[in-house]
Amino acid sequence: MNPSKVPDIVIGRLPLYLRALTQMAQDGKEITSSQELGGELGISSAQIRKDLSQFGEFGKQGTGYNIEFLADQLKRILHLDQIWDVALIGAGDLGTAIANYGGFIDRGFRIRSVYDNDPSKIGTWAGAYEVHSVDQLEKDLRDMGIKIVMLAVPASHAQEVTERLIAADVKAILCYAPISLSVPDSVKVQYIDPVLHLQHMTFYLSK
Amino acid sequence: MNPSKVPDIVIGRLPLYLRALTQMAQDGKEITSSQELGGELGISSAQIRKDLSQFGEFGKQGTGYNIEFLADQLKRILHLDQIWDVALIGAGDLGTAIANYGGFIDRGFRIRSVYDNDPSKIGTWAGAYEVHSVDQLEKDLRDMGIKIVMLAVPASHAQEVTERLIAADVKAILCYAPISLSVPDSVKVQYIDPVLHLQHMTFYLSK
């Protein structure tokens, strides 16, 4: 099957599979099954087999999946057989927490540069990163060839910064501001909005 | 239709609709359409109409949706016609960023109490909240009747804290640690893992 035809919702589950497989490998396991993986993730084994079958044949009937092999294949499919440079825009509390988070590099991403528009923050440090001014943002991102940005600025500034990211040829934005960004089809956006998750769960809670 | 039979993926889109409608209302709009809402969110208008029809009839053919009415109905469906008390566990960089985030109260949630296991943090402040010891966590949460927790502790502690939350009768956990928690079916878990979103987007990026 042509991977570009695979539904986006299926693509969205592959990183979950990869995360669970990586954990299993770290626990010293070598073989798993769609049942075990599904039990771990709360996804049916049939769904997992169907998702994976869109990209090829990764296990033999009855013998399960080789964890390391399947993880490597998923990394290849997701273009994680390389490290991606990422810029972080916004060095407030949230930006600082992101800069200090140690979980990016093992999973394919390296924060390359951190930016803020607050003169009092420029030249200070967010974790291991010196905070740079956004004055030269477009040129900086182009010079470094950065295609992925984590956007941790206030909602009121998010669209304005996004226009500059688009001008700098950024192709993927992880937006922490609680708004929907307007971008051309050629730019991917994913959102981190904790309230959406909380509101999803309250549906299931009795008052 | 019985709302308890509505697929979880549909429930997950309702908070997105509510967020977009709230933004429209703030911009002074009174009426919208499934086309406009869909354009805003990158979801087809047919999908939006189908999702909403699972819960009733919220607009008349050709006249669109009354924004305030539809937002109120979504709040009712999602049990957001009340404010939910939430506890935050973990007062590191991330916990502090969450404690300082101003976007909860307008959307149905109030941080009631913040906890950490680090003696040097107990009694200090994370934003407007005094940090409490986890020693009495189960009793505290039960006494306050808290059913929702945001979990911002290291991955190595997340399952252990989760066992205590389950014992305290917590029913919904928003987990910021990059692991899958084991919980009984009666407990809902949602995850915030920025790397999953980044890995989803790299599928679409050329190397």
Describe this structure in words.
The structure is a homodimer of 207-residue chains. Chain A has 207 residues and is of the alpha/beta class. Chain A folds into two domains: 75 residues, Arc Repressor Mutant, subunit A; 112 residues, Rossmann fold. Helices cover 41% and strands 19% of the residues of chain A. Chain A has a seven-stranded mixed beta sheet. In chain A, a hairpin with a 2-residue loop joins strand 6 and strand 7. In chain A, helix 1 packs antiparallel against helix 4 and helix 2 packs across helix 3. Chain A is globular, with a radius of gyration of 19 Å. Chains A and B meet through helix 1, helix 5, strand 10 and helix 8 of A and helix 1, helix 5, strand 10 and helix 8 of B.
